[in-house]
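Input sequence (277 aa), recorded before submission:
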Amino acid sequence: MRGYLLIELVSLLFLNKINAQKNDKKIDELVFLYVDEKYDKVVDKALALSENEAYKKNPLPLIYASMGYYQISRRPDKYEQGKGAEYENALKNAQKYMYSFTKKDAKANEYYNDYKEYYVLLMDTSNKVGQHYFLMEDYRKGAGAYKYAVKAFPKDPILLLWEGICEVKSKNLAEGDKNILAALAKIDENFEPSEATAGVLAHGMLIVSEYLTQKGDATNANKAKDLVEVFKKFDPDELDKNKMEERKEKAKEDDVIMRKFYSDEEDTSSENKKEEE
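Predicted structure, token format:
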């Protein structure tokens, strides 16, 4: 959960870069509202601006919508996030607009470096949510959490790997197998994991190697087993059973907080309807 507390420091890092960009009064207004912690207004103005004809091709309103929703998701005491509330799916919306931002910025890749710290932070949070549900053995919610994470960060196969693991654990074997094999195809000994997800890669590969061995897929099982050794340097504790039990106990303590932080609902139908083109 430590990553949730880093946003203030991270904000200072990337806001310095943002201020160096070309002046744009409407974007500047979003920056000032964000710095003033008026996150609901950031979201409202960013989404309105994204519909403005002059800004429809501009990725920046979308990243501010994501940032605003992310900060709202961290403040359930200020922004009501219970079922049916205005900000019920705040973190999912942060992920959705991150996806929309990267999609619009993909060709020129003009703004990614300016917002890289936030990109890593949101990925870290998304991964921690999925890991929390995995440790709680609530695999259905874990799969749902990772599904949204994969949508926001499609280039990180570690998230896809863990979505597959959670799907398998929740008995959705066809979907789980598909995701696991797709992730394995993208990860080899030369793969460079993100700092946000590197720590769970070795554990994921250990689970996958055992699962594929049981299925009789020796080739992929052996590949996964070999990759455990390659990537365990990023977090040796992931392979320590005692440490994992300690993490499970900590997850139980954090469960009340997590229930507030992340909506349990998986409203995929509304997500598809509202997704940015």
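Checked by second reader. The chain has one domain: 2-274.
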